[in-house]
Amino acid sequence: MDKIKIRGGKQLNGKIYIGGAKNAALPLITATLLTEDEVILSNVPALSDVTFLNKLLIELGTQIEETIVQDGEYTSKTYTYQTKNFKSLTAPYDFVRKMRASYYVLGPMLARAHHAELSLPGGCAIGARPMDIHLNSLEMMGAQIEIKNGYVIADAPEGLKGAHIIFPKASVGATCNILMAATLAEGETVIENAAKEPEIGDLIDLLNDMGAQIEGRDRSVLTVHGVQKLHGATHSVLSDRIEAGSYAVAAAITKGCIELVHAKEEHLEVPLYILKKMGVQITPTENSVIVDARHADMQGVDIMTDYYPGFPTDLQAQFMALMTVTPGASMVSETIWENRFMHVPELMRMGANINVHGHASAIVRGVKKLSGAPVMATDLRASFALVLAGLVAEGETVVNRVYHLDRGYERLEEKLQSVGADIERVHEDD
Ligand code: EPZ
Fold first, then answer.
1. What pTM does this model have?
2. I want to staple 293 with a disulfide (CB 3.0 to 4.6 A). Which of 62, 92, 222, 252 is the partner?
3. What's the pLDDT score for residue 289?
4. Which residues of the chain have pLDDT under 50?
5. How far apart are CA 369 and CA 380, in angstroms?
6. What was the pLDDT predicted at 430?
7. What structural domains and CATH numbers belong to the chain?
């Protein structure tokens, strides 16, 4: 199992290229199941979650071609997907248990093939992560849903029908799944209280390019007029705002200056506002955002995670790492996930002063120095928080179980080395 070793104390300066968004790529990949034509996705990030989802689509009958694209210093991947026919309509436990976003195949398979069998994803480190909103909505669209032996068996022999659906929570996953299902449903589907994350806008752009009729992009009421068939399209995956936000914190925590190439300021308004409030200088350019903390006199601030456009829960752990070494006290409230403070005990082992109240809030009091330590990664974003702490801790930090990081951060150690970090990946036989 690989480890990442970091020797803290380096100020990070330079350019980091931000890749395509994991949380856009995953639904975009499953949207290719909605047509028998070729769909070409460019700027797809080289992440284990993407590799995994591609393997699942191959199981279902998709042909996939991959090409590497070099644009100056920037490397990305382009994939061509084509599912002429399904050879299976089952997403097996082996796939789904390792990557819950496999459940994105449910909407497309039901819409196009009128049947789908999907292993229930089960929980993960950050919470129970139920699917009730997905399933209840599909039932409202005429699907018969049965849970048997840990599988969802979904059937819609006459195809799906449009419905007026009100989400109890603005679920990103349910918005994507129901949007994809509704594109081929008979009649009109209205989704109220839909999630408005930029990744959903990216999915709507692809679906409409494929011939879908979706109105309400970036708003919480989406209207879909079902069509008979969708056709092929070409689409470039949106830049990853969470990867960009994570490296913005790397600049802030090391008091350095990093240009985040391809980052979009408009998708990071609240996190960048928080960094500005902490004293960091933020400068958007034509194709990047420059984060300059070299002269920042930082002070702690409070953050509360919320649905987009509020503060993203996927940046909570990274900002908490920053607060552990920022003078003053900061309150961190997590409102989306019930168990997303697993980075706290690991940060405390490095000398952080954090007090967790219940499940949902923590007080962080800045300390002068963290000390390097062997730490354990638990979930994707918590792992990045440990890397950030290691960048400023005295001595060496070893982050174990870096497979968590590889799910969502492409070539993390190379990108940090390129701006001066003393970091290396150590391959260790199990
Ligand atoms: C997506 O997860 C992201 N994953 C998560 O990012 C992100 O944290 C989350 O949205 C919130 O922004 C992907 O896009 C692949 P939700 P998702 O459905 O869709 C409850 C990362 O680090 N809920 O928006 O699973 C749920 O329990 C990952 O990249 C139900 O109650 O999240 C949560 O409290 C981690 N019933 C809230 O809604 C349901 O049927 C939001 O969850 C579905 C969700």
1. 0.97
2. 252
3. 98
4. none
5. 25
6. 57
7. 3-19+239-426 (3.65.10.10), 22-236 (3.65.10.10)
